[in-house]
Design a protein that fits this description.
With 174 residues, this protein is an alpha+beta fold. Helix content is 52%, strand content 20%. It is built from 6 helices and 4 strands; from the N terminus they run αααβββαβαα. A 4-stranded mixed β-sheet has the order 3-2-1-4, covered by helices on one side. β1 and β2 form a beta hairpin. α2 packs antiparallel against α3 and α4 packs parallel to α6.
Length: 174
């Protein structure tokens, strides 16, 4: 359910999609109901019907741009009071199957942007460890993506991390 909300948020941020929050909440309620039914003691017939609905929803949510690519979704978290952060990255194949993941806590993180940049770099390291040659990256940090695409000035605090990201993407031919 959280991934669904995250994807809708990204659609609004990056693709200027209109968001009708009542539809988003209704979708979340349907996902929760599907989850509840799938985990309750229903008949096998009812369970297979619900499983089919869940599969259909998953197919609608997962849209890799190219076949045979490993899709890395990364996210960073920041705790301002303690100047700490954490990164997470998930790797899925072109069919949406889970391939691997990474998580790492950090100390001395100065901003959410630093956490997001570290998360993207960790996602590329994950792809490298999984021996993937073709990688598609996904981040929810519009500011970071604009910096990587040269459309926004890069602040000093993330300059070295973005240098690492550019170096790693060049290893992939991108």
């Amino acid at each position: 359910m959280l991934r669904s909300i995250w994807k809708i948020r990204n659609g609004a941020l990056f693709e200027d999609q209109q968001v009708v929050w009542s539809n988003t909440l209704s979708h979340g309620v349907r996902l929760a109901a599907d989850f509840e039914r799938a985990n309750s003691k229903e008949s096998e017939q009812e369970r297979s019907i619900n499983h089919g609905c869940t599969q259909q929803l998953q197919q609608q949510q997962w849209r890799p741009q190219q076949l045979n690519f490993l899709k890395i979704t990364s996210d960073g978290a920041w705790w301002s009071a303690r100047q700490e952060g954490a990164t997470g990255a998930i790797a899925r194949d072109s069919k949406g199957r889970f391939i691997g993941a990474s998580f790492r806590p950090f100390q001395w993180v100065s901003s959410p942007l630093v956490a997001e940049a570290q998360a993207l770099r960790d996602g590329l390291h994950l792809a490298w460890r999984l021996n993937s040659c073709q990688v598609e990256l996904e981040s929810d940090s519009k500011q970071l993506i604009q910096m990587l695409n040269g459309r926004q000035r890069v602040p000093f605090e993330v300059d070295a991390i973005l240098g690492d990201i550019h170096h790693l993407t060049n290893l992939y031919g991108g």
